[in-house]
Amino acid sequence: EDIDSEIMTRVDFFTDDDIDMFVTQEGVPLGTPASSPPELALGLPSDHRGDIFSFGVVVYLMLTGKYPFLAGTKDAVRRMIIHDKPEPISSARKAYGDVPSELSEFVDKALEKDPDNRFQSAAEMRDQLRQIFELMNGEISAEHKDDAVLMAPVSPVHAETRSPRKTLVFASLL
């Protein structure tokens, strides 16, 4: 099966209404509703910490197979982003195994409603991920301490089938 068929299969998985949740909307300050930070959902300006929130959404999706904030309409998604906490990763993954609590805490911090409570920079996120991966892998030897990429085995949930799939998660630590 070629890559074009695989892409079409994945696109066909969603209805037209579903696609609206994941597509950036021209002329609308919210951007992609399912992964936009609360400040944009409120119509407020956002800075680099909005990107940190969006990265938290992506990591949550990788670990659980579903978006942390998803509802039937864009307005409902916005309300969830502004007011609700996502389902804890441990319960969202209950059938597929847990992840280290440090990784759940990492995602929780990235998804904080108040930008001042999130990571304040990509460098801070990198440092925290490095510590988490060191914990997951055991102590990393001095000769590999400065490698640009660390690998940690994680069993993410495949979104389309909800089946676990053993893979490696790569974190760029440049």
Describe how the helices and strands are arranged.
Layout: H1 3-12, H2 16-19, H3 38-41, H4 48-64, H5 74-83, H6 89-92, H7 101-110, H8 122-137, E1 149-154, E2 167-172
Antiparallel strand pairs: 1-2
Helix pairs in contact: 4-7
Percentage of residues in DSSP E strands: 5-15%
Cα-atom Rg, whole angstroms?
17 Å
- Counting DSSP E segments of at least 2 residues, the number of strands comes to 2
What distance separates the N and C termini? 35 Å
Which regions have little confidence, pLDDT < 50, spanning 5+ residues?
Answer: 1-15, 22-28, 140-145, 147-153, 160-174
- What is the typical, i.e. mean, pLDDT? 73
Q: How are the strands of the largest sheet arranged?
A: 1-2
Structural class: mainly alpha
Number of discrete helical segments = 8
Order of helices and strands: HHHHHHHHEE
* Spatial shape: flat
Largest sheet: 2 strands, antiparallel
Helix content: 40-55%
